[in-house]
Each structure stands twice: as C-alpha cells, then as structure tokens.
Amino acid sequence: MTLYTGGCLCGRVRYTIHGKPTRVGICHCTKCRRETGSVFMAYADFRERDFRVEGKTKEFDGRHFCPHCGSRLYAIESNAGEVEVKLGTLDAAPSNLRVERELWVKRREPWLLPIEGSEQYEENAPKRA
Predict the structure, then answer these.
(1) Does the pTM exceed 0.85?
(2) Among 4, 23, 38, 54, which is disulfide-ready with 17 (CB 3.0 to 4.6 Å)?
(3) Phi, psi (5° rounding) for residue 65?
(4) CA nearest to 26, candidates 116, 115, 127, 90
(5) Domain that holds residue 19
(6) What is the pLDDT along the chain (129 residues), one digit of tens a residue?
(7) Cα Rg of the chain, angstroms
(8) CATH number of residue 17's parent domain
(9) Residue 115 falls within a domain, yes or no?
C-alpha cells in the first residue's frame, strides 16, 4: 500500500496517509490564492479514513494549519469523506503525483501555461455522482 507522510514547517504537526489520492490538481480561485499567498494552490484529495494526524491544528473555514508556524496543511471535506492535502507539505519532493485537473483557470496568471494533459475548468469541476 502507498504511504505518504508530511507535516508543518516546525514539525509539531505530522500526518500519514495510507493509499493513493482520488485526484490531484491545482486551483487558481481567489480563496486558494489568498490561503496560500501564491497564485495557485496544489493539492491531492485522499479518503478521510486513510488520513491520520498527530499534533494540534487550528482551523478556519474547514482549513487546518499549524498554530505555531502557520503552515497550511489540509482541509477536511467530511461531506465527501475526503481530505485535501497541500502538496507542499508532503515530505517527498518531488512527490511524483501528476496534476490531472486545473480549477478556476479563468483566474490563472497569463504567464502560467496550462498543465499539459490535465482537465481544464473555467471554475469548479462538476461534482462526481
């Protein structure tokens, strides 16, 4: 079984994930840009039941971060049974995870090229059935 590990900058929060992501993407929406302080956010969604965290986090609007160093770590989407992990918090770099979709491309900076082979969505992707 695939194992991913990661955590925050100061090391007080650590997580493990047993299993492969259900999807990998980047998002250019205003919320993700502001959350990361960057022009997009890279993420992987995993099943919530495969995710374990050690250490205390603070939460804002479903998004969890380390209260000591401020690292943004993950968002729990309980209604979908998923956890959205920020790719930059994974221990392995490169992670060898392939971005398969780009969201909110209408907000993508003009100097960023589309990721070849990934699905492109002007806004959010359609919900899965």
Answers:
(1) yes
(2) 4
(3) -145, 160
(4) 115
(5) 3-120
(6) 799 999 999 999 999 999 999 999 999 999 999 999 999 999 999 999 999 999 999 999 999 999 999 999 999 987 889 999 999 999 998 888 999 999 999 999 999 999 999 999 999 988 765
(7) 14
(8) 3.90.1590.10
(9) yes
